[in-house]
């Protein structure tokens, strides 16, 4: 354990409950150089954040304390549990000569956390933030699988392995969307694509969609939803997959929806007429003179004639009396 002096008064520590994990911590300030990033932390992607740097400068330092633990190997140093982006962007500002920002507020645990505790604490904290739904969920799922495997990752996130696999698929897909500049937006695009019917989303179709997004032929994530009607129509789908096909030209080939059939008796009569009209003339020729068929037609004529008389005058008693 780190041998840096800790508060000797037991009341200097406080208990902090983060989900199922309870930590004993104390508040202090630390120098930027005494803090070491955790190379196993779940967040991926670029750390530079211009807006965060503006906030740090405006507040004359980091406002929210970093959550740290004693470094297990470097005496007198602390390892980041949560606050990597705050530390990284402060580092960038100090490297530009803004030395007044190097003192950081910190909340330090009384011991080194286990890997499982560290991950659970980080995830609990980030789930409380608005950005979790925007982009963190899939990214963290992907990273956790790499760090601890599928079963442990699912357990830490409180998900089934199947739900975890879906998040990982979405993240991997978002990484293929190079034409989308904002990482958060690429996740949104990937979610929309993965919501398409899996039977329709063949590898060829998926590759085509990704290529058209990267070439900015599809420029709005909402347009991905339009692919549902395109992929269900054979002619429209072929147009989309052709070398010159665009989303607009594919939509133009979608067949108009068939008019909705009336319900009840009217629908039954319409179905009967459509069935009769669909019979080929060759079949009618073969049935010419068929006594059983002629008898059935005569009975149908009688029934339809009686039905029409009754519907022409709904107030007239049955039987014409």
Sum up the structure in keywords.
321 residues, alpha/beta, Conserved hypothetical protein from pyrococcus furiosus pfu- 392566-001, ParB domain, six-stranded mixed beta sheet, 14 helices, elongated, disordered N terminus
Can you lay out the helices and strands and say which pair or pack?
Layout (H helix, E strand, L loop, with lengths): L13 E5 L2 E11 L3 E2 L13 H9 L7 E5 L7 E5 L1 H12 L7 E7 L5 H13 L3 H18 L1 H8 L3 H16 L6 H12 L8 H12 L8 H10 L1 H8 L5 H6 L11 H14 L3 H6 L4 H22 L9
Helix pairs in contact: 1-2, 3-4, 4-5, 4-6, 4-7, 5-6, 6-7, 9-10
What would you note in describing this structure?
The chain has a domain at 10-114: Conserved hypothetical protein from pyrococcus furiosus pfu- 392566-001, ParB domain. It is built from 14 helices and 6 strands. The protein has helices spanning 50-58, 84-95, 115-127, 131-148, 150-157, 161-176, 183-194, 203-214, 223-232, 234-241, 247-252, 264-277, 281-286, 291-312, and strands spanning 14-18, 21-31, 35-36, 66-70, 78-82, 103-109. A 6-stranded mixed β-sheet has the order 1-2-6-4-5-3. The N and C termini lie far apart (105 Å).
